[in-house]
Amino acid sequence: MIRPYVAILAVVLTPVFFSACSGPESAPVQAVRSYLEALAAKDLEGMVSVSCAEWEASARMEVESFAAVTPELVNLECETAGMDDQASLVTCTGQLKLDYDGEIQELELSGQVYRAIQEGGEWRMCGYK
User: Which band of pLDDT confidence, cut at 50, 70 and 90, is reported for residue 24?
Assistant: First the structure.
């Protein structure tokens, strides 16, 4: 018979064990995640700071397009999906919920492939494939 404290300990430690095995996110994934988090916060400076120079104008347009909505990032999970020339490809799942005066629209993130490149010694979000 399993003692109750052993069962409770197993339930508590199992998620800790699996989260420790997952390891840290790659730098390209962190750049894309930071970009999406800044977009959801409508943080233009945050978006630009993790964008490559070529993408900065597009980042500005993206944040401006969200001026009339309140965005919320839900269940964001990203992972590296390969390479394309010098770019690391990143895919994400989750939704960007947009609240426009009480009307909610959900944008699925799973349909997009993000490009991240190394620029100035750092990985930066640099558009979509």
Answer: low
CA nearest neighbour of 91 among 37, 28, 48, 42: 28
CATH code 3.10.450.50 for 24-128: yes
Q: For residue 68, which phi and psi values (nearest 5 degrees)? A: -95, 0
HEC secondary structure over 20-38: HHHCCCCHHHHHHHHHHHH
CA angle 80–81–84, rounded 5-degree value: 110
Give the residue with greater pLDDT, 40 vs 4: 40
Q: Which helix (H) or strand (E) holds 108?
A: strand 103-108
Q: pLDDT per residue over 56-74, tens digit each?
A: 999 999 999 999 999 999 9
pLDDT (0 to 100) of residue 25: 78
What residue segments make up the domains of the chain, in order of their start? 24-128
Residues whose CB is less than 8 angstroms from the CB of residue 52 and which lie 6 or more positions away in sequence, other chains included: 117, 119, 124, 125, 126, 127
- Model-level pTM? 0.80
